[in-house]
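Why predict the complex rather than its parts? Because the way molecules touch one another can change local conformation, and only a joint prediction can capture that. The input here totals 253 residues.
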Amino acid sequence: MAKTIRVAAAGDIHAGSADGDRVRDAFRRVEEQADAIVLAGDLTQHGQVDEVCVVADACRGLSIPVVAVLGNHDWQSDRPADLGRALAEAGVVVLERSHTIVPVNGVSLGVAGVKGFVGGFGNQWANFGEPIFRESYAETTRDVDGLDRGLQAIEACAVRIALLHYSPVEATLVGEPERLWLVLGADRLAGPIRQHRPDLVVHGHAHHGSFEGDIDGVPVYNVAVHVMGRAFWIFDLDSEQRTPSPPLSVEES
Ligand SMILES: [Fe+2]
Ligand SMILES: [Fe+2]
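Output of the joint prediction:
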């Protein structure tokens, strides 16, 4: 009999140092409803350690695994390593161009995670010109390569998730001004998704974007809390069905 695992996803929690009760309550509630949690970056407002400790404290001692990527806000104070350490000490698996495989209900859940970066859609950003422009292009290339490696590494898992902060597709940006799409995602990130076809792709970052999209039938969701209008969304993922089509059903938390 097919096993369903329930994955709760949220992005852009943007915890402030005074948000402890709100964040802790949300994680406690979702712990009872889900088998695993994925966090799509922007855990903090300004990348401060006291802010990330609000999220870390909410995750500490949970009975279900938590996997996260950082977002651009989490880099704002130039302390991503300190944030990663605070989360890891609380048991959160932080991915950066890497992957993890966790057993969930007797099923292997693989998550490939990259923050992602800018670049836009339809060749808006070329590998050309001043060094800083070419370096930005190269940074996104490193994310594309990291996502490719991560998805390759979880290929044999029963359930496979691509976890990003920046969007790999335009569809989940609809609602944001189009002039901002250049810095909200990059279509080059869709390449590895098209190739490896994970069961689910989640990202955040676009607070005013749209919830649902796809990349050649691979379901993509913008799980920014501002878009969802709730703390978490719970996805039911079937361990025996590869890359569902039509897009998988979702349930409200
Ligand atoms: Fe955000
Ligand atoms: Fe962001």
